[in-house]
Design brief:
Layout: E1 4-8, H1 21-29, E2 34-38, E3 43-45, E4 49-58, E5 63-72, E6 78-81, H2 89-99, E7 106-108, H3 111-116, E8 133-136, H4 139-148, E9 151-155, E10 165-166, H5 170-180, E11 184-188, E12 197-203, E13 206-214, E14 229-232, H6 237-252, E15 258-263, E16 266-271, H7 278-285, H8 289-294
Parallel strand pairs: 1-2, 1-6, 6-7
Antiparallel strand pairs: 3-4, 4-5, 8-11, 9-10, 9-11, 12-13, 12-15, 13-14, 15-16
């Protein structure tokens, strides 16, 4: 049966049609369903929660909007929240509004889960798997932590490697507070990053695939957006153990798609807002993982 499926995405002009996981999912689902898109700013409440939605044709490197219309979002069979962070008040507001209908419409990933579980804080539920970590708004605590470890500092709500750097001076902390807000995350530097950062794509409690991203020489950020080179990767027994435990959390919270980031035997992030990497995994392995994830 044809279903009405909506994607809450960034405007298509901001997307890379080759590497974007949302575009991949849309192309797969529109083969058998009625798929429409809208941006977070297209949502409004006037007695019921509505959105102005658009029907797009996505070509290899271009898009065309065929028609727009306004609907009550409760008419949708499912909604995919797929716009990118930053995890700011605009992002949260769209999730708060969708949360009011998540008991009536199937939403992936659930807005209540996204707002309750920031990606860099989820690993706190798995403290045995984390590198030594400090989350703080206190410069004194940061300096104290730094004395015992070579550290990196990063914004608590950044994405795509934004702001990740070696923590060297007090000014690093104070300058970041001016840019990113009071709370920052400081972690023990893991030299294994030179070998790469592992991305594991999971659907509920199932491991779909994994690959490793090797950073450029002298770079501590292993994001492909920062020039890292991806390679196929087989998980170690320790990494499989970590995924199995994290998978219990994902299944319990009905998380359709998650991107787990590991450096060596440590979990650094559990990405659930708009996880990426499926098209890249398809290219590395010659498979169509979206078919397994979406059915």
């Amino acid at each position: 049966m044809t279903k009405l499926i909506l994607f809450q995405i960034d405007h298509p002009s901001k997307l890379n049609f080759v590497t974007d996981t949302s575009i991949l999912f849309i192309r797969h689902l529109e083969k058998s369903h009625d798929v429409w898109c809208y941006t977070p700013k297209d949502i409004f409440f006037d007695g019921s929660l509505k959105a102005t939605i658009s029907k797009y044709i996505f070509e290899q490197n271009s898009f065309k909007c065929l028609v727009t219309k306004t609907i009550n979002l409760e008419q949708a069979d499912s909604i995919f929240i797929r716009h990118d962070p930053p995890y700011n008040m605009d992002y949260l507001t769209s999730c708060y509004m969708l949360k009011t209908i998540e008991h009536k419409v199937k939403i992936y990933n659930k807005p209540s889960v996204i707002t309750s579980h920031p990606e860099k804080i989820i690993p706190v539920y798995f403290k045995d798997f984390m590198p030594k970590t400090l989350i703080t708004a206190s410069l004194d605590e940061a300096i104290k932590f730094k004395k015992d470890h070579k550290c990196i500092i990063k914004p608590l709500y950044g994405h795509a490697g934004e702001g990740v750097k070696i923590f060297e001076t007090s000014n690093d902390f104070l300058d970041y507070q001016k840019i990113y807000g009071d709370y920052l995350i400081i972690q023990e530097f893991l030299p294994e990053i030179t070998q790469g950062d592992v991305r594991i794509i999971m659907s509920f409690d199932k491991i779909m695939t994994s690959f490793i991203r090797v950073p450029l020489e002298g770079e501590i950020r292993a994001n492909t957006a920062r020039g890292a080179t991806p390679h196929p990767y087989n998980l170690t027994s320790r990494q499989l153990e970590m995924c199995n435990k994290i998978g219990m959390f994902l299944k319990e919270n009905d998380i359709l798609l998650a991107g787990i980031d590991m450096i060596g035997n440590y979990v650094t992030e559990v990405n659930i807002t708009s996880p990426t990497g499926v098209p890249l995994a398809n290219k590395l392995y010659g498979k169509r993982f979206e078919e397994e994830i979406l059915g």
